[in-house]
Amino acid sequence: MNGDVAVSPAGTPLETPVIACVGVVGAGQMGNGISHVCALAGLPVVLLDVERAALDRAMATMARNMDRQLRRDLITEADKAAALARVKTTTEHAAFGACDLVIEATTEKEAVKKAVYRALIPHLKPSCLLASNTSSISITRLGAATDRPEKFIGMHFMNPVPVMQLVEIIRGIATDEATFQATMALAHRLGKTTAVAEDFPAFIVNRILVPMINEAVYALYEGVGSVAAIDNALRLGANHPMGPLELADFIGLDTALSIMQVLYEGLSDSKYRPCPLLVKYVEAGWLGRKTGRGFYDYTQDPPRPTR
Ligand code: NAD
Q: Does any ligand 1 atom lie closer than 6 A to the CB of residue 196?
């Protein structure tokens, strides 16, 4: 990150903020992955969740995922030990006082994220950048709910973070050039490749991916095929590494539904209407892998289709 010279739109050099300590809010699937890659890149990480149990699970998941990297000779035992030692878990926002960037990775609900910013902001130093890992919500609107819209940016990691190459970077209307450059430099330091997306609902990846998943749920709902038939069809017929329903379970059905709602409301187009069957699964609490049941039942080995 040192040595990057950012230039403002007016052509004057900008001081790119140095990110030496990262905070992560939300220790779910994404928060633990983001902490994992930051810690392995040598950055001290402060990881916060409202639930102590979520923090303990996140640390265990990180250790397990690093073991997998160890077995593939991607890291050493010493790298793993040093990275895990860099992650401090907390339930107190005051722990973010020394952070240069805080990445919010809480539940995909605008009200939750705005409440997080209200709780967080009094504890941040004025220069601290704030990023959201939102899959779909307007970065401009989220940034406007903070005291620092010019230092607010979308940093959309893909799941699973240690494996997936891409980070989408989304500027809100007020995001300044120095914040953009610092965020790009951090993504590259983490070994990721960036795609810059404009701030429209669901950005690039989910604008295309999640309507496809929703269409797969419609195909199931209308009886076009069973869960297994739909997933096999896309795996073998379109060469997708995972079927769309398997992928929905992996993402989390609540997250997939929230993204469809953001597309439907944000673009006012009926082609984005969420499938009623997806709504029903979420209402049942069948959220996919993270709750043990979605389009597949994960208490069975191998997971058994639920329809
Ligand atoms: P998750 O349900 O696994 O985790 C969310 C975590 O946020 C939980 O541990 C919860 O306890 C915590 N949380 C909720 N309210 C909080 C608060 N007020 N303060 C602190 N922590 C709080 O969800 P996830 O899949 O990790 O998704 C998190 C974010 O990342 C969402 O915005 C989602 O859209 C985005 N995202 C998800 C994926 C994916 O494939 N799941 C991919 C890219 C981006």
A: no
